[in-house]
């Protein structure tokens, strides 16, 4: 039977609505989840917003909800979809079967993902067969070599390697996976970007990104097509890296390494954390030593993490005798014993979502904030 002229627009209606909600100012993942519960679908939620029918929600009075609903831009979402198609990218939304099974908007996961290249079930299923390998940008040559060997061993064992395409450990992990894939391994590597899926960052890694795609890998991002990484976007990206893996391997992390954000997110998500031992006086590995002290399993050989050894012990919460730092302004006035979600923190600070999550995740690492399993934050 020949398709009716309006069939094609109907097929893209729900993904288009999800993308429009993702780009709408004031509408974060948690509010979008509330709207979905209220109206049944993203498309119906957008239509209700255009009618001025969005309900009041906690910390979102009716007048703000009504104004936000009128600002949902379907035409802008259509333009972004066309840009994505021109670069060969695929749009995934929570209604798509290929969207990560464990990601739900009410827990802060993105409403739209753009993917180039492979997007294997190994990173989207309920039990991901994937490992995240992360570490510092200024890693030692020995750490980079170990990360590369670790990634190659993972791919040979059939596990995908997830990392962030940054300098240092990230690049070494991707390269090790690429070489294993070229040699016939059944898995490859996935790069998670903080900017648009078409904006490789750092730009010096454009060749690495091409090699990754040529080796059967993939690139994923939640930012708009063409967007440069926003301030504070990298801690958010690190949470997504942890969310696409079953094990997070931290290689030679310093005391302020972004890899510790990934490890903290892994604990929130119930993932296993492993890290490399180091000399106690080596400040460049102080973060890894802290993870070991708190119970992370050691990585001693490239095959340790993937080839049947007993599961690592998840790090335990910080000891009660460790000094807890008070939150800095403005968090000292916002963060208390009562939990607050990301949307509430955006309202209280007036900051963007990336800056809010970056500050709160930094607070988790520094000890003045605690993240709850439902994605909310409070003082420890």
Structure description:
The structure is a single chain. The protein has 380 residues and is an alpha/beta fold. The chain folds into three domains: 12-87, no CATH class; 118-298, Rossmann fold; 331-378, Orthogonal Bundle (Arc Repressor Mutant, subunit A). Helix content is 40%, strand content 10%. It has 14 helices and eleven strands. The chain has helices at residues 7-23, 29-39, 42-50, 62-70, 74-86, 141-156, 169-182, 206-214, 233-243, 259-268, 286-293, 331-334, 342-349, 353-366; strands spanning 90-92, 113-117, 130-134, 160-163, 189-192, 218-221, 247-250, 272-275, 297-298, 370-371, 377-378. The strands form two sheets. Strands 1-2-6-5-4-3-7-8-9 form a nine-stranded mixed sheet, with helices on both faces. Strands 10-11 form a two-stranded antiparallel ribbon. Helix 1 (7-23) packs across helix 3, helix 9 (233-243) crosses helix 10 (259-268) and helix 9 crosses helix 14. The radius of gyration is 21 Å and the shape is globular. The termini are far apart.
Put simply, the count of helices is 14
**How much helix, percentage-wise, in residues?**
40-55%
Number of domains: 3
Structural class by SSE content: alpha/beta
Mean pLDDT: 83
Count of DSSP strands: 11
